[in-house]
Amino acid sequence: MIRAMLLEPPHRPARHSRFAAVICLLLACAGCSGAFFSALNTGLGGPDPSTVVFDAGHGLALDVFAPQAADTPAPVVVFFHGGTWQGGERGEYRFVGDALAARGALALVPDYRKYPQVRFPDFMDDAAAAVAWAHDHARAHGGDPGRIFLAGHSAGAHIAALLATDPRYLEAHGVPRHAIAGLIGLAGAYDFLPSDDEELVAIFGSDPDQQARSQPVNFVDRDTPPALLIHGDADRLVKPANSRSLASELRANGVPVAHTEVAGIGHIRLLAGMRTERLADVLDPTAAFIHEQPARTPTPR
């Protein structure tokens, strides 16, 4: 069952880093995810985010992390949290928004409804609504609505990737596909169905066509935005083959992709790399990718 595999075995702590050692200890403790996120959110240097309701009907909000030291409109990163489409809260990911804002991005971390409240594709509509808010309000917060990056970890990376590859979700909310400058997937699930796993069937359904509609690899085409895919090669929750498969499809369609597997790193520790590179080399390549990607223009038909 997917829930039973959320935590990875402990790893040797990074040298000369008391903070990293604490995080690694928490990684070894089953059931201590609250303490894990609390530690990652301790001692952050950025200002508090502002919170905006983007879907009052469903009670959905997003946290806005203003870009720091930005002289021109900043790239916008919409980061979707993980949690096997069942758990996780946007507030746990403040360290992600803080890190991205410190690197000059307008970072947004939104809610989305989760199972059992909803099933696929309802949470995709929530995610698209959050991106639409970003597109419509980026300028008011120092961002560039023509350079939106879709990002996420684990289930959040799946959501980001499906928004990036299947244009129907964003088009339904009036977001032009060329406004998406890039995809950033951390330990994402991109090619994991068909499956008879009870939890996955509950979330995505048992119909083969329905399951196929949930897989980002099935929608890659030449208009898919450039991608950065980072995965730990010791990930036991979301197999690295997911990123390999998506990277292969992107290359086959001529889409630029940077695909990295971090040696000896598992599922949760990869996410912690957004706080400090001592845990995993994630933040630096993510920031570089964001600032290297130009705005896209519509592809001629």
UniProtKB/TrEMBL annotation:
Keyword Transmembrane helix on entry: no
Residues annotated as transmembrane: none
Keyword Membrane: no
One Pfam family it belongs to: BD-FAE
Keywords attached to this entry: Hydrolase
Gene Ontology MF, one: hydrolase activity
Listed Gene3D superfamilies: alpha/beta hydrolase
Highest taxon listed in the record's lineage: Bacteria
PANTHER family xrefs: AB HYDROLASE SUPERFAMILY PROTEIN C4A8.06C, CARBOXYLESTERASE
Protein's name according to its UniProt entry: Alpha/beta hydrolase
